[in-house]
Design a protein that fits this description.
Number of strands: 17
CATH class: Alpha Beta
Largest sheet: 9 strands, mixed
Radius of gyration: 22 Å
CATH superfamily: Alkaline Phosphatase, subunit A
Distance between the termini: 58 Å
Structural class: alpha/beta
Amino acid sequence: MKSIASISLVVIMAWSFLGCSGLKPGEQVMDKTKPNILFIAVDDLRPELAFYGADHVSSPNIDKLSESSLVFNRAYCNIPVCGASRASILTGARPTRKRFVDSRTRKDEDYNEAISLPMLLKQNGYTTISNGKIYHHADDDVNAWDEIWKADNLWSYALEESQEIRKNTYRGLPIESADVHDSVYRDGKLTLKVIQDLKKLKDSSQPFFLTMGLAKPHLPFTAPKKYWDLYDRTEIKLPESYIQPESTPKQAFHRYGELRNYEGIPKEGDLPEGLAKELIHGYYACVSYIDAQIGLVLDELERLEMDENTIVILWGDHGWNLGDHKLWCKHVTFETALRTPLLLKVPGRTNGQKTNVITEYIDVFPSLCDLVGIDIPNTVEGQSFVPIIEGKEIEKDWAVSKFKDAVTLIKGDFFYTEWTDDQGIPYARMLFDHRTDPMELDNLAEKDEHQDLVKELAEDLRDKWGKDFLIK
């Protein structure tokens, strides 16, 4: 066991490096004193976890990580769809009306000139490994990685009959509970790969940017039976917000087509209550499954004595609706689709602090640059939240998120959304005050007494949505 003094010395050395200004493109600097980065991305993970107050969800390993991290209570993705969200966080650039728009987004096509986070780290001497789902497409931004690994999509299912259904249908079954080992599913295979990488990297002369891109709890909700057994379905309830108020613009809702593509899901109308609870049960089981995988990797990091010089960041690419507003999946700008879990562990500097500062995902890139002493590219639009670790205040305390025509300003307790055309002219809007309406059921935007506030927020939205937002 290392002494506190020696641990402190390691931390001081890791953060005393002054950066790599003047580095030529493609040139690498080797500096083992730079901290490693373990970058854990989780697909469709909403902040319904025990350390966020959801005691009904079993997430002991992420809970343990939170105890040594800075916990962001108000972190928001910039767009609630996986491909675009990942391209945005990895470039630190905002989505616009024409850039980073949907699940099929490719960084190379939408913003090829931007230096991505993995590319920047690679240029500065880091070994970069993409494991699992990091970008939506495994062949996106390929030059940024020393290695790209991904498990076969077939391993979303463990049972032979489920695999056959998947082969013969568009999406297959929405759920599966199989009495199998964790490593049968692809997130279990991913875990073994990341652990193998840690063992190989331990004696490397280079720092690493090692990623772990978990597929669950994305549909289909498939996980080993033991994780389903953690929950009693009779105790599962539909959300209190299982309603679509008339005051909310119709544009705010969708038919959750992603879910309806699975076998056994009605093509129209609300889901039967029993099916809805079964899906919620499956989502919880998948969360507990990936929590166990994360625990195995973090345990190995500690066993190898690499944890004292490794930054760990864990994030979900966006939120997810579990019947909230009678919706399923993401693809909306309600808080349930925008708010995300975000944890940052910096050895020697974080110890379970929590912040209510509003943070958006484009802030991740510059923050990691600050922590490892690398200059931030001028294409990055986010702002470092590292001062929060030091107990300092930061001026920026707002976020902007969008999906299709909807663009949302999150400021204080207000969630203000406009649906705009290509010229930025609004054709629908909604405003929620979370002090009195945390479930977002009372749209204030069209009420006479709130028009001055609406005008102020509309101007603020345009000031903050980014200089390139309307560029075609």
